[in-house]
Amino acid sequence: MKLHVLTLFPEMILQGLAPSIIGRAVEKKIISLDAVNIRDYTLDKHGKVDDYTYGGGAGMLMQAQPVYDAWKAASGGKKIRTIYLTPQGTPFTQNLAKELAKEEELIFLCGHYEGIDERVLEEVVTDFVSIGDYVLTGGELPAMVMIDAVARLVPGVLGNDTSAEEESFHNDLLEYPQYSRPESWHEKRVPEVLLSGNHAKIMKWRLEQSETRTLRFRPDLYEKYREKQHLIKQLSKDKRNNIHMMESLSRGKGEILYRDGNNLIIFDREASTCMLKAEKTETATKLSERLPEAKWIIVNQEFVKEVLVTAGYGLWGECNQYLYTAKESLPVRYKAIRSLTTEDVPYVSSRYKHDTEEYIRERILAGEIYGAFDGDRQIGFIGLHNEGSMGLLYVEEEYRRQGIAESLEAFCINRCLEKGWTPYGHVLTDNTASEKLQDKLRFYKASQSIYWLSGKTH
Ligand code: 6GU
User: pTM of this prediction?
Assistant: First the structure.
């Protein structure tokens, strides 16, 4: 990832980040960081970059020309997402950090004095972002805050790739308290349950601690969490048909974008996927008008599908939804199965034609595609789609009918169970081989078909 910072204080950025983990990532060339001095681009012979504001009022304003020329130099004419750090922006969140972490290149623009001439902002800025409701003297500290939050999500920056998953804000809850040695310090003992070795009990205790803390310190977050939990409970009355929505919410992926009784839009921004449910045709029409731009819309009511097709969404496919409700892990007979790496992208994308290479790469980087091997030879794979369903199943012709698909599925199911997820999948209605396999593995089939529609961005 390439990061450019436009600033009057480049040394503040470079020296500020150098000793940190982000500085190490720059040394390892996982990230490049350049700080462009806006003053180097002024045409004023005294090096001036600011002037009085039209209409009067306090303080000086950064002028358009040096900012624009510095931006042009950094962007090199490419369309690069450009973030202006300002207390007038939208609040910076972990979700925005995740979104930005997927960009190849970013530009941060730091203002000073009373701000920057509006005209240049209109031309170059794509995102106006604030880091909180307080006023700082300039955009450098906010830019460093954002760079830290974004860069740590770039694969390879943190040593341990799973640590980003279990942290605060993952599921609208704050993190639980943690303890290290010694067992007793200042006469305070480590909570007994953590020494019990009982994993289920420990998970339960941690969840309770997270809930208590969130309620106390962040009642706003706790309210959101409760609303979600309540909806999951409602949806569980028809678990087989609703599992995709329940899992989207419980895995901390989907947000409730709209809810009015049984009319519901869940949006997984990362997967660019909407899931909706409506009470009747009229409300489905209303919901369709509220849909955000998304690649995919998933519905399991035929009349909602009809409304969306009429509204111009294309029907991609009709599937059956299967879910695995047992809690026990399954035996995996074929042993040579492991997580794939980006080296395996060409193999997978040459065999699996429903999705793009870019998508396969993203899924592999997420650690959610597993491959089967015969010695060094790749012979098949399975994975999780970005909205949560199992899929991406493939076995080489000459290795079929030997239980390898079954082992791949069992392996994938076990990985889901370890994370506390309910495995589910969507099988195209004409794929009888796959249907047979789901039955054999004792998946339950939902009564309603599930329809995948392509969103209007497709
Ligand atoms: Cl992004 N900039 C400045 N100057 N002050 C802030 C801020 C940004 N976010 C909160 N306060």
Answer: 0.83
